[in-house]
């Protein structure tokens, strides 16, 4: 029927003729600046060419409100998509370093990564069961979307809460990095191959009328193999550990033997309770109202855990609460679209840092509204980092923010970026602050039954 209808429509076809191509070439060659730009960009990264020298000279990594002390060492997620875990653990370690009087400290990112892989694969298989019972076709948009990327490294704040509340935390010394922690592509390739294979087996069993018990047994058998793959690549965390450390005064201390969950509950939770933190997002699309709660279909990492809830608020409120938190001495986890208008080598996120019209004759990335960029696939959250300082003018309006990244100390100012408030408004999508900073009116949004967005909605994009 569709093909028949298409034959009856006068299709618009803008065919490029030889005359068109000659016209385009003539316009290009008529401006010598194009030839200069071509010469330069044939040897140098076009985005480096577009960097504004004037903007760089005007930028200073100086702030008038900063958390008491930033943590050491600067972390590095390397060739993995674990920024959301790194950013969370970078925030949590700050009060830990202060309380235990430490020179430096890192939680084990590999520990949470291990449990996220196990839980995430199980979550995927459960999604396959659920969508099969919904009679979703395997080539339909939902199942096709799930099969496209059965497991990835990225995540959201509520996923962090799930992992910590269920599995606790561990110092990095007690579960160090492995090759596949730092370069996860090969492990993920193995897992994705098996998960797609297992998805077919599950759907075949359900289609043949298998009972819930049969399906549960099959998933358990599949998870035995998944656990083996992850354990081979990442190692297996010990059930208990002992944390030995020296404080700044070189005194020896020891905690343990203790389970990771006990370590979090008894020693970390009193300093940083993940359940006291709330995640606020900003989605300016006209279809999604502020003051409403949203969730995304099939998004999560722990079966039986909390859902990813989006409390949608204006971006100005997110900026206000970020500044308030930092002025009270608390760093802020946040998610953004990191690559847009970002000079990562020198560590500047500023919508004026690139002069694209000067190089290409056209502007990019900010020519549509934030809402339209979400609608047209031009924008989505891609990365999580930490705010540690803000700078406000004499009217108390925020001008810029200091950002702790997880790309090592050879980018930016020894691992830190500078973000302007204009950039924040354009490319930041969520922040996590303590609920004590948030009004009751905004907190009440979490009591709503969330509106369910489709699995492929851009607000379901995971920070990596």
TrEMBL record:
<dbReference type="GO" id="GO:0004197">
    <property type="term" value="F:cysteine-type endopeptidase activity"/>
</dbReference>
<keyword id="KW-0788">Thiol protease</keyword>
<keyword id="KW-0645">Protease</keyword>
<dbReference type="GO" id="GO:0070005">
    <property type="term" value="F:cysteine-type aminopeptidase activity"/>
</dbReference>
<feature type="active site">
    <location>
        <position position="83"/>
    </location>
</feature>
<dbReference type="InterPro" id="IPR000169">
    <property type="entry name" value="Pept_cys_AS"/>
</dbReference>
<dbReference type="InterPro" id="IPR004134">
    <property type="entry name" value="Peptidase_C1B"/>
</dbReference>
<dbReference type="GO" id="GO:0043418">
    <property type="term" value="P:homocysteine catabolic process"/>
</dbReference>
<dbReference type="Pfam" id="PF03051">
    <property type="entry name" value="Peptidase_C1_2"/>
</dbReference>
<protein>
    <recommendedName>
        <fullName>Bleomycin hydrolase</fullName>
        <ecNumber>3.4.22.40</ecNumber>
    </recommendedName>
</protein>
<keyword id="KW-0378">Hydrolase</keyword>
<feature type="active site">
    <location>
        <position position="405"/>
    </location>
</feature>
<dbReference type="GO" id="GO:0005737">
    <property type="term" value="C:cytoplasm"/>
</dbReference>
<dbReference type="InterPro" id="IPR038765">
    <property type="entry name" value="Papain-like_cys_pep_sf"/>
</dbReference>
<keyword id="KW-0963">Cytoplasm</keyword>
<comment type="similarity">
    <text>Belongs to the peptidase C1 family.</text>
</comment>
<feature type="active site">
    <location>
        <position position="383"/>
    </location>
</feature>
<dbReference type="GO" id="GO:0006508">
    <property type="term" value="P:proteolysis"/>
</dbReference>
<dbReference type="GO" id="GO:0009636">
    <property type="term" value="P:response to toxic substance"/>
</dbReference>
């Amino acid at each position: 029927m569709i093909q028949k209808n298409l034959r009856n429509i006068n299709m618009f076809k803008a065919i490029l003729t030889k005359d068109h191509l000659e016209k385009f070439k003539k316009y290009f060659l008529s401006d010598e600046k194009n030839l200069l730009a071509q010469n330069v960009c044939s040897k140098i990264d076009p985005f480096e060419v577009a960097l504004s020298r004037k903007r760089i000279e005007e930028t200073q990594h100086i702030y008038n409100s900063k958390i008491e002390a930033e943590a050491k060492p600067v972390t590095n997620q390397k060739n993995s998509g674990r920024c959301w875990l790194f950013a969370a653990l970078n925030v949590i370690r700050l009060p830990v370093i202060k309380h235990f009087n430490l020179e430096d400290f890192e939680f084990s990112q590999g520990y949470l990564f291990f449990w996220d892989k196990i839980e995430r694969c199980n979550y995927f298989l459960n999604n396959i069961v659920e969508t099969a019972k919904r009679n979703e076709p395997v080539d339909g948009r939902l199942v096709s979307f799930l099969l496209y990327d059965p497991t990835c490294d990225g995540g959201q704040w509520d996923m962090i809460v799930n992992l910590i509340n269920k599995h606790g935390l561990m110092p990095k010394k007690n579960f160090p990095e492995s090759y596949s922690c730092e370069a996860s592509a090969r492990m993920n390739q193995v897992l994705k191959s098996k998960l797609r294979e297992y998805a077919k087996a599950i759907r075949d069993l359900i289609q043949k009328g298998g009972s819930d018990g049969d399906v549960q047994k099959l998933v358990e058998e599949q998870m035995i193999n998944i656990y083996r793959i992850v354990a081979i690549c990442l190692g297996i965390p010990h059930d208990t550990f002992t944390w030995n450390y020296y404080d700044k005064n070189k005194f020896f201390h020891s905690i343990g033997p203790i389970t990771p969950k006990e370590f979090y509950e008894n020693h970390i939770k009193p300093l940083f309770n993940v359940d006291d933190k709330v995640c606020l997002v900003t989605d300016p699309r006209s279809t999604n109202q502020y003051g409403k709660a949203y969730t995304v279909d099939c998004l999560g990492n722990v079966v039986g855990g909390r859902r990813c809830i989006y409390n949608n608020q204006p971006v100005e409120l997110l900026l206000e609460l970020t500044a308030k938190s930092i002025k009270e001495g608390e760093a802020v986890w946040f998610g953004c679209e990191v690559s847009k208008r970002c000079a990562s080598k020198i560590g500047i996120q500023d919508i004026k840092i690139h002069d694209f019209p000067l190089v290409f004759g056209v502007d990019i990335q900010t020519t549509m509204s934030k809402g339209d960029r979400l609608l047209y696939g031009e924008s989505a959250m891609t990365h999580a980092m930490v705010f540690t300082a803000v700078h406000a003018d004499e009217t108390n309006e925020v001008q810029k923010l200091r950002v702790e990244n997880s790309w090592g100390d050879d980018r930016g100012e020894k691992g830190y970026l500078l973000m302007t408030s204009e950039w924040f408004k354009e490319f930041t999508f969520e922040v996590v602050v303590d609920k004590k900073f948030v009004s009751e009116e905004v907190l009440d949004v979490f009591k709503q039954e969330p509106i369910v967005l489709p699995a492929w909605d851009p607000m379901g994009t995971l920070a990596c």
